[in-house]
Amino acid sequence: MKHFWLGLVTVLSLLFLLYLLLPSPSQPPPLPNSLRSTEPGDTVQIPGVLAHYSQHQRDFVTKYYQEKFDEIGGLPIKFPSFRLNHPPQFAHEKIRSQVLSSYFEEAVHPFRESLFINGWEPEVFLRGNPGAISQHTIIVDGEKFFSKITLRPFYSTVQARIISFVGILLSAAILYFLTRRIVFGKT
């Protein structure tokens, strides 16, 4: 029985290490039929931040980017991510200050990377306030857009993942031996 548990822990550890060594997803592509933002803060001022104007609504945007995020570095496999819904007022902490937000979501590969998706939909967010809607309507080059989507990926390095892996293994081993000594009185 002892060999079974040791074998199981070894196999699970190797699978976890393989997961950590997979390449990161590529840079998120623009939404179909969208226009790249050239506003300050949306281009090169903040590394990794990408923004697009679009006619798409939240459901399409978040599903589209989660599917693209699940494509691992050009490999023919998809690795599922978790989708976290954050309060929009926290967008200025992860994206950039002075960003307008009506929704703020995150696609996550645990222990690896995150993609923050911020959406500003003035017609939805300011519904019932026509004066505010007209003030915040998104018009670029004479074209009216429904939303502005701002993305910010956070990728970890392979070295950081390996350090985390080793730390988790060491912590698990220490907990195992401490539990064995304290609870069961074995050395």
Structural overview:
- Helices cover 40% and strands 22% of the residues.
- It is of the alpha+beta class and 187 residues long.
- The chain folds into two domains: 23-156, no CATH class; 157-187.
- The strands form two sheets. The protein has a six-stranded antiparallel sheet with strand order 1-2-8-5-4-3, with helices on one face. A two-stranded antiparallel sheet has the order 6-7.
- The mean pLDDT is 88.
Oligomer kind: single chain
Q: Order of strands side by side in the largest beta sheet?
A: 1-2-8-5-4-3
Distance between the termini: 19 Å
Helix content: 25-40%
What is Rg?
Answer: 22 Å
Beta-strand fraction estimate = 15-25%
Main sheet characteristics: 6 strands, antiparallel
Number of DSSP E strands: 8
What tags apply to this protein structure?
two-stranded antiparallel ribbon, alpha+beta, 187 residues
Summarize the structure.
The chain has helices at about 1-20, 60-70, 90-95, 120-125, 130-135, 160-185; strands spanning about 35, 50-55, 80-85, 105-110, 115-120, 140, 145, 145-155. By secondary structure, the chain is α+β, with helices and mostly antiparallel strands. The chain folds into 2 domains: about 25-155, no CATH class; about 155-185.
